[in-house]
Amino acid sequence: MAEQNEQYFSAQPTSKDVRKRHEFTVRGYEVEVETSNGIFSGDRVDLGTQVLLRHAPQLPAAGEFLDLGCGWGPIALAMGIESPEADVTAVDVNERAIELTNRNAELNNVKNVHAGTAADVPADRQFDVIWSNPPIRIGKDALHDLLMAWLPRLRPEGGVAYLVVQKNLGSDSLIKWLAAQLGDEYAVGKYASSKGYRVIEVERA
Predict the structure, then answer these.
(1) What are the C-alpha distances in Å from 5 to residues 9, 70, 136?
(2) 33: closest CA among 70, 88, 83, 84?
(3) Contact 162, 127 (CB under 8 A)
(4) If we measure between CA atoms, which residue out of 62, 164, 70 comes closest to residue 121?
């Protein structure tokens, strides 16, 4: 189990790529997906992602959206289905996760989802919405670096992010840290709580 946890944030998982088909519900939408070993939550929609999808507000009809740390793609799929006019970028370090997200978008005819690595995203691209179940277990410093690489790319005047973090893994201290780091241009706070998780809202003023 520890090996699996270590692998999901590796660029190239060492476990065998064994594809499995599942039918899941993401944000009320029925999807048929492929998953595999060596990715985050490869056999289910994990509880944190469920909480985020249940509590995050309705998406704009269009815009630039980001799923940060996409795994096999449940958040990106929900975004793409809910807002078919939006352009949904899904980012992960794990090549297998990226391949699966693109595959699952294709399987469900969600044409507006495109997954890749951070290097595939133009440096000047800004986002109207960011949703993320961030990889807490990469460690605090790496997590902070990841969030500060992407949250400042929220579009000025209304760009908003929703992050789901377990309470016992430091969600409340993360809220304080983000508020201090991002400064007065951003409003950071608790948006919702459920099943031991907090949904954190980061809004660019």
Answers:
(1) 8, 15, 11
(2) 70
(3) no
(4) 70
Residue with tokens 């201290």: 173
Amino acid at 135: P
Give the SS3 label for residue 202. strand
**The token pair that represents 66 in the structure block:** 């980001």
- State how far the Cα of 179 lies from the Cα of 79, in Å rounded to an integer: 26
pTM beyond 0.85: the answer is yes
- Helices 171-182 & 140-150 angle (0-180, nearest 10): 50
Cα–Cα distance measured from residue 46 to residue 136, given in angstroms and rounded to the nearest whole number: 14
Beta strands in the chain, from DSSP E residues, in sequence order: 20-26, 29-35, 64-68, 87-91, 113-116, 129-132, 160-166, 186-194, 197-204
Q: Give the tens place of pLDDT for each residue, 110-161.
A: 999 999 999 999 999 999 999 999 998 888 999 999 999 999 999 998 999 9
* DSSP per-residue letters across 29-69: EEEEEEE-TTSTTTTS--HHHHHHHHHSPPPPSSSEEEEES
